[in-house]
Amino acid sequence: xxxxxxxSGMVGQALCAGLHSNGHEVMMGTRDPNSEKIHAWLxxxxxxxxxxxxxxxxxxxxxxxxxxWSGTESALQLVGEDSLAGKVVIDVTNPLEFTDxxxxxxxxxxxxxxxxxxxxxxxxxxxxxxxxxxxxxxxxPQREEGTPDMFIAGNDPGAKQKVTELLKSFGxxxxxxxxxxxxxxxxxxxxxxxxxxIRNKTFTHAFRLLRQ
Length: 212
Hints:
Helices cover 36% and strands 20% of the residues. It has 7 helices and 10 strands. A hairpin with a 2-residue loop joins strand 6 and strand 7. Helix 3 crosses helix 4. It is globular and about 45 Å long. The mean pLDDT is 95.
């Protein structure tokens, strides 16, 4: 599958490398695809291409959105809503700001980052997923203790089915929480992951429901 990864930070790089190793054709979308930093990373990875946000969005049959929240709206303005019209967009972002007391959510209760992304991309099918784990385990979630669960949320059943199949190919068990408004629950769940990381200095943990 041709996949766009919108974002070139730690999450974007991990997703690009993991998707490429799983046989997908990947293009990274970034503000400056000609930067020395991007070129050096592409050379070390091999097989992944880089372009502008708009070029990557047009390239991909499906897109991962993994920009820092502070730059997400402006990145999507550079993409343009028509470039992702009718496509599935997997929203990996969390609406965080970083303070001297640590990270905190800046959206919640009556709205969410996932809902904002869907409003910014009214012609796309946004599915919140992978926002509750670290970049390095998004495509390799397997544990000796068992298969962890990934919670997803989105309005379009077909889009969620497509995301479910992709996540299962990575090794996840998938739990559909409902519409994109359920991002109001999934984004605070990411804060539990973050707080556990801060207190215990471990970053490979994930969530798993115990079933009888």
